[in-house]
Write a structure and sequence with these properties.
Elements lengths: L1 E5 L6 H12 L3 E5 L4 E4 L6 E4 L2 E2 L5 E4 L6 H13 L3 E2 L3 H8 L1 H10 L7 E3 L6 H7 L5 E5 L8 E4 L2 H13 L4 E5 L7 E8 L2 E9 L14 E4 L4 H14 L3 E9 L2 E8 L5 H7 L3 H12 L12
Parallel strand pairs: 1-2, 1-6, 6-7
Antiparallel strand pairs: 3-4, 4-5, 8-11, 9-10, 9-11, 12-13, 12-15, 13-14, 15-16
């Protein structure tokens, strides 16, 4: 098969591993810089141009779209969908996952476990917003934040009020969430491909830190999921419409709750923690599912 990886940096671990795994399985793998793609959208025969030439028809495209280029990146993916190319994650699903508020609303509608969450633009009573999520300690998140950036733990109601007022003064969109103290600074990253969890790791925050992101010094190890955790991860991926994603779960007293669904999860942490060849498993999914015009939206919406 001829497969394209949309990635801005071919030296990134995830991009390198996907290329190595694909070529080891006999596929032709092209790494395409998403921002250097440009689209012919005036013709009845949609095309993607790159370096002055039309890109060939690919059997599949693996989008590795960074959050900073979501708008343009999803437009490129949508163009491939219009050409009939199978995209591992569709443009609409990627857009959903990048909007934290929209993600939580979709997950909530499907009855998937979530921490109590509040969202407001200019609440008349910030105290009531805080009260509705159970009061301090609570977590305040920037909607556009990634890798734990823009996430603040407020340990008192007064501190929460001050942080919320500060963010609102900057006209930032924020979420206010209950703090799952019993999780002990740990979460579980479930790597979902298709309709199953192919690998899972438990990430533990460093001392004095509540964010478990590996980019913030957290550690990771192999974990055995409960049936409920596995089902929660799979249902979250389905709700978002993602074939490939990382679902981050906290273990709460009321069961597993989803913190985030990541449409472009990194491979390095999960492969090192579990010892699994996650990249090869992704190609196994592609080999079984890549067919022309097999995407659900076909570039619509």
């Amino acid at each position: 098969m001829r497969i394209a990886i949309l990635s801005r940096n071919e030296s990134l671990y995830s991009t390198r591993r996907l290329k190595e795994a694909g070529e080891a399985l006999g596929h032709q793998i092209d790494i395409i810089d998403t921002l250097h793609c440009y689209m012919d959208i005036t013709s009845s025969n949609p095309k993607v141009r790159y370096n002055g030439e039309d890109l060939p028809m690919y059997d599949a495209v693996i989008p590795r779209i960074g959050s900073s280029i979501t708008f343009y990146g999803t437009a490129v993916v949508r163009q491939f969908e219009m050409m009939g190319t199978f995209c591992v994650n569709e443009s609409v699903a990627i857009s959903r996952s990048r909007d934290k508020l929209r993600s939580l609303q979709l997950l909530s509608r499907k009855g998937i476990g979530l921490p109590r969450t509040g969202f407001a633009s200019k609440p008349d009573k910030i105290q009531d917003l805080i009260k509705n999520v159970g009061g301090a300690p609570l977590v305040i998140k920037l909607l556009e934040g990634t890798q734990g950036i823009g996430v603040v733990l407020a340990e008192t109601n007064k501190a929460a009020e001050s942080v919320i007022e500060a963010f609102m003064g900057l006209k930032a969109n924020i979420l206010v969430q209950e703090f799952i103290e019993e999780a002990g600074g740990a979460d579980i990253r479930c790597f979902v491909v298709g309709n199953r969890v192919i690998a899972a790791m438990k990430r533990q925050a460093g001392e004095g830190e509540f964010r478990s992101n590996l980019h913030r010094g957290g550690s990771a190890k192999l974990v055995r999921l409960t049936k409920e955790e596995r089902l929660t991860a799979v249902n979250a991926a389905k709700a978002m419409g993602l074939n490939l994603c990382g679902v981050d779960i906290l273990q709460s007293n009321s069961g597993p709750v989803v913190m985030e669904v990541n449409s472009s999860p990194g491979l390095e942490g999960i492969e090192n923690a579990t010892g699994k060849d996650v990249a090869a498993m992704i190609f196994d999914f592609i080999e079984k599912n890549a067919k022309p015009n097999a995407t659900k939206t076909k570039g619509k919406g």
